[in-house]
Amino acid sequence: MFLASVLSALAPLALLACPVGMGLMMWMMMRGGKKQPVSAKAADRPASIEVLREEQRRLDEQISHLESDTGTTAGAEGERR
Predict the structure, then answer these.
(1) pLDDT confidence of residue 37
(2) Is residue 7 part of a domain?
(3) Same domain, 49 and 60
(4) How far apart are CA 49 and CA 55, in angstroms?
(5) Which of 32, 36, 61, 81 would bridge 40 by S-S if both were Cys, CB 3.0 to 4.6 A apart?
(6) Is residue 59 part of a domain?
(7) Which residues of the chain are modeled with pLDDT < 70?
(8) What is the pTM of this model?
(9) Cα separation of 66 and 72, whole Å?
């Protein structure tokens, strides 16, 4: 008799376990999605002017090196187009 009353009391809890658990998981996922990792925050910040100038200098050197390897100049490149 006691076992039957315990089972009848637990039946509604068993039926509610899935929806309540799913709602809890969705809430935790939404709450956790608002936090950005440190690397993502750093990517949002614009680079400093010194870093950009260094990258431009490096790219200019690469372009010069590639142009000297192929024997192409900027003037000859413009004539072909």
Answers:
(1) 61
(2) yes
(3) yes
(4) 10
(5) 36
(6) yes
(7) 33-44, 72-81
(8) 0.34
(9) 8
**Domain, as residue range, for 61:** 38-74
- CB-CB contact of 13 with 19 (8 Å): no
CA angle at residue 13 from 16 to 4, to 5 degrees?
145
* Amino acid identity for residue 10 in this structure: L
**Buried b or exposed e, range 46-79, using 16+ CB within 10 angstroms:** eeeeeeeeeeeeeeeeeeeeeeeeeeeeeeeeee
Residue 81: its pLDDT value, please?
42
Alpha-carbon distance of 23 to 25, in angstroms, equals 5
Q: Which amino acid type is present at position 74?
A: A
Tokens of 54: 């260094």
